[in-house]
Amino acid sequence: MATSAASLSKGTWWKEGVAYQIYPASFKDSNGDGLGDIAGILSKVDYLKDLGVDIVWVSPMFESPQIDMGYDISNYESVHAPYGTVEDMQALIDACHARGMKILLDLVINHTSSEHAWFKESRSSRDNPKRNWYIWKPPRYAEDGSRLPPTNWRSYFSGSTWEWDEHTQEYYLHLFAKEMPDLNWENEETRQAIYNSAMRFWLDKGVDGFRVDCVNMYSKRLGFLDAPILDAAVFEQPAWCEYANGPRMHEFLREMNSAVLNQYDAVTVGELPHTPDPKHVLRYVGAGDKQLSMVFQFDIVDIGQGTVGKYRFEDWKLPFFKATVAKWQQFIEGTDGWTTAFCENHDQGRSVSRFASDLPEHRENSAKLLSLMLATLTGTLYIYQGQEIGMINVPTDWTIEKDYQDIESVNFYHAAVKAAREAMAGDQQAIQKETDYIRRSIQILGRDNARTPMQWDASNKSAGFTDRPEGGWMRTHDLYPEINVAKQQSEPDSVLSFWKNMLRLRKSHKDLFIYGNFRLYDPDNESTFVFAKTTTPAGEAATGAGQAAVVVLNFTDKVQVVHLPPADEVGDIQLQVGNYLDATAAEKTEQSSALGRQRTLRPWEGRLYMSS
Ligand code: NOJ
């Protein structure tokens, strides 16, 4: 049948809508305390609508001691006071709905804060009724009698996943910070409490669904075995094989749907790391076995991360990037599953800096090139705040000591430097080399890159993010006078205008861009990325009007030659959009030359062709 397989159940808002992620601390401060807030978000709802956003995803704004920027929740039913109140959230929900937009909240239920009332009870005594709501284990003992944690698992934020509790003489599990104990999903009563407090409370207020944090980590392998040793220099080892995608994961998600989500027709987008097998991902996102509406599969944003330690940057080549994009575009073809298109979020370096070029002469074209790529990909499109104006990574002279704030990268840095000092004692040069390498890796990949305040204008040194004279909670990017919303709103050729245009185009050709099939061309080329989107499955020609789009992207700062796919595969295609102002003129010259389907792309040039 000549239809796109992914198009089963077309017309769904959560497939066709453009989603935009807001990181509350850094979006907009309305009351001059240096921290973003809900009233600040409210003041920008019209900006989002105008950009073309249909779905607003708000990262955690719940009550929290903020050890991990709100991913450590102490009360699901209350709002972090500096951000506002539950009533403010209700106003935001209503404001989105009044403009025809949907709103998703973050659902962080793998763990709570250690300040949550549930954990306070759980840790109060071994026979407390809530003891079993978290994961407690007795110690192991080494041959010399010293106490050891129950396993050698490494926490995401460095060190062990186990914290010793002096009071009750047991360890509790925390995959993240020690202030973020893991909930025990094996306990039915705990699951019911989570459903009520974290989910029904907000669904009753009208939220349309959730981005689900660590969605594949609730079910741990109950043997609690040591992880294999990958990093012989330290005791703690990467252990996701023991705690991700555990035996009851799918059962828990089915229960969550039948108990809660189905009653509200709520949508979920799960955060799904450590799951490289498409067949496995399909189990989560297949529409038949309703578990999750869609997921963020992490292969694309993991590119460049170290295999043993996240902030040990590894160089990569374009064919790998292209194959990764192709894999997570194509895995739903012929199935009832759904995918997402994204390359930024609050845990990632900025895409212009990571995947293209943030040099002054290239960064605007780079941002537009990535926009061209993303806006033409199949699946639900997610944009992260600031991506629409091409915000870039923090400058290389920002220091870990003064400017970086993120618990993950700061802890990683200190642990790596300590390990280097121990392993290379006396060799100052080697220690310095290692330290510089980790700093550079964090500058490329660090989460703080995404958390600098949103650059609204050049009205003050905080880029209009806050009026507080001493600035925001986090340093503003030095380049805000050049990269900001107000400036770009006044420029028809800005990155912001380009994104708006691309989002409009995407929505006016849903069959091609949102539901189409993806075909990669010239996969081994290290400089250019050429792909087609078609409304027909691979192997079938897409030669009728409106049936095909071709995207050609030069991922280098040199001139590159590309070949448009043959006419018998993609039909007669015409230039629709380019990121160079004179793309149309350049195209005319090339078309009239004797070069046939060959095109020459300038540094970071991208073009979109569509069948007429
Ligand atoms: C994933 C979130 O995106 C990240 O920011 C957070 O640190 C961890 N989960 C823990 O909740």
From TrEMBL:
Keyword set, alphabetical order: Maltose metabolism
- State the source organism's domain of life: Eukaryota
Q: Where is the Glycosyl hydrolase family 13 catalytic domain?
A: 21-451
Q: Which Gene3D superfamilies match?
A: Glycosidases (3.20.20.80), Golgi alpha-mannosidase II (2.60.40.1180), Oligo-1,6-glucosidase, Domain 2 (3.90.400.10)
Indicate whether Nuclease appears among the record's keywords. Answer: no
Q: Quick check: keyword DNA damage in the entry?
A: no
Q: Which CDD domains match?
A: AmyAc_SI_OligoGlu_DGase
Concerning its family, UniProt says:
Belongs to the glycosyl hydrolase 13 family.
Protein name per UniProt: Glycosyl hydrolase family 13 catalytic domain-containing protein
